[in-house]
What we know:
The protein is built from ten helices and six strands. By secondary structure, it is α/β, with parallel strands linked by helices. The chain has a four-stranded parallel β-sheet, with helices on both faces. A two-stranded antiparallel ribbon has the order 3-4. Helix 8 links the parallel strand 5 and strand 6. The protein is globular, with a radius of gyration of 18 Å. The mean pLDDT is 92.
Amino acid sequence: MTYEVMSLDVQHLLTRLGITKCILLGHSMGGKTAMTLALQRPDLVECLISVDIGPTSTAPISEFSAYISAMKSVKIPDGLPRSAARQLADHQLCSVVQHPQLRQFLLTNLVEVEGHYVWRVNLDAISQHLVDIMNFPVFHKPYPGPALFLGGSDSPYIRSQDYPEIQRLFPKADVQYIAGAGHIVHQDKFGEFITAVLNFLPPP
């Protein structure tokens, strides 16, 4: 589960869909995957939007590892109604994942399969590749197209110390912040997020 492998997954999907050039938007891990694809295959990417993540290591500031451990420890009895299962999982997560909106975001991955509640994301694979996920691949050749780095003003994930690396790899980048938004920018300030994305995109 490296960003190079996830980038190849997206490339294969584009080929299967017959898409020769795309506008690529990704959030967090998806943003790092989108950046990797743009740097590997700039011919496929018309423009790039990275939501609340830069091309740098997030290990010093991320609580991701603790969140994964908390999700793996959730225990839901079989046969519970979905609403009760989500409430129980929310209660079990709240001591580690203290922001309610972030818990709700994580709980979108809790699904019922044949009467059992499971996480639809591969938590074991994520745990085994945390170092890769927290870091970012080394690239030397920049992406020449337009790029938007859209962060939340209340999030630590796009920091001023990241600007030199953003400018090195994405020389046409614009960095913007949405006031009052945390890491999940599109959930916290949906209207402002959509406006910022539409203002960045080329006219149809």
